[in-house]
């Protein structure tokens, strides 16, 4: 697939969605019958798939100018792309809901629910990206006063603590997901199992564990080579 094709598919889906909304509005005002119904779940999936194809186009465009292979590009940008899908979806849903509600007086039932749940994905995937970039808020008073080798060991210790916390979070969040799958529990509007959205928590913390292990390996290689370890960006750096 090329970036141009991904953009075209995204545009086609957007046009289909707009036509569907306007046709539904006309049918509602004229008490006419639609030949078929997408339903709340169908509209949600249409917007999500269209957003995903748009981000795929951006990723393909970005990869064209890169010398890395696909695995390397995905390793460097997986969280960025996933967060972009969630963020764009939330923005699109909020904007279209305002237009539908105040412009057409014809709002959707699924927009608030899906935006809320996608924001959960955005937060937990963003946590993993923060670990990768070493961008989480931290107290660096001690780190700034020790040598490079001691700094490396402190960073490794911090990553090990992060892994321990993340594994506990994965265990208990998976317990919740299993309960939802076993006992059931659907969302109020879409009427799908909440496990599809609750799984954002163990997924995010699993990514945190993976990125922490990568950080430990990176710090160890830097220490062995006598290089300064990656410090990320301090909160008040210029």
Write a structural description:
The mean pLDDT is 85. The protein is 74% helix and 0% strand. It is an all-alpha fold.
The rounded distance between the terminal residues' Cα atoms is: 40 Å
Percentage of residues assigned to helices: over 70%
Q: Could you tell me the mean pLDDT?
A: 85
Rounded to the nearest angstrom, the radius of gyration is 22 Å
Strand fraction equals: under 5%
Order of helices and strands: HHHHHHH
According to DSSP, the number of beta strands is 0
Structural class by helix and strand composition: mainly alpha
Query: In DSSP terms, counting alpha (H) and pi (I) runs of 4 or more, how many helices?
Result: 7
Write down the overall geometry.
elongated
**Main sheet overview:** none
Spans of 5+ residues with little confidence (pLDDT < 50)?
none
SSE layout:
Blueprint: H1 3-29, H2 39-64, H3 70-103, H4 111-132, H5 148-183, H6 195-198, H7 200-225
Helix pairs in contact: 1-2, 2-3, 3-4, 4-7, 5-7
Structure characteristics:
238 residues, mainly alpha, elongated, 74% helix
Q: What is shown here, in short?
A:
With 238 residues, this protein is mainly alpha-helical. Helix content is 74%, strand content 0%. The longest helix is centred in the last third of the chain and has 36 residues, at 148-183.
């Amino acid at each position: 697939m090329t970036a141009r094709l991904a953009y075209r598919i995204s545009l086609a889906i957007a046009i289909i969605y707009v036509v569907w909304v306007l046709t539904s509005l006309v049918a509602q005002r004229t008490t006419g019958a639609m030949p078929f119904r997408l339903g709340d779940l169908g509209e949600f999936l249409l917007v999500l798939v269209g957003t995903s194809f748009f981000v795929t186009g951006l990723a393909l465009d970005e990869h064209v100018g890169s010398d890395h292979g696909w695995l390397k590009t995905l390793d460097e940008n997986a969280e960025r792309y996933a967060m972009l899908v969630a963020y764009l979806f939330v923005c699109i849903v909020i904007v279209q809901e305002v237009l539908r509600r105040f412009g057409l007086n014809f709002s959707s039932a699924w927009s608030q629910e899906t935006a809320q749940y996608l924001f959960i994905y955005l937060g937990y995937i963003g946590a993993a990206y923060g670990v990768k970039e070493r961008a989480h808020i931290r107290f660096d008073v001690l780190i700034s006063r020790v040598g490079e080798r001691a700094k490396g060991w402190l960073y490794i210790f911090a990553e090990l603590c992060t892994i321990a916390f993340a594994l506990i979070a994965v265990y208990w969040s998976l317990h919740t997901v299993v309960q939802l799958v076993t006992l059931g529990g659907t969302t109020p509007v879409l009427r799908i199992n909440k496990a599809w959205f609750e799984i954002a928590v163990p997924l995010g913390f699993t990514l945190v564990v993976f990125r922490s292990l990568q950080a430990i390996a990176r710090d160890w290689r830097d220490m062995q080579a006598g290089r300064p370890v990656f410090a990320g960006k301090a909160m008040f750096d210029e």
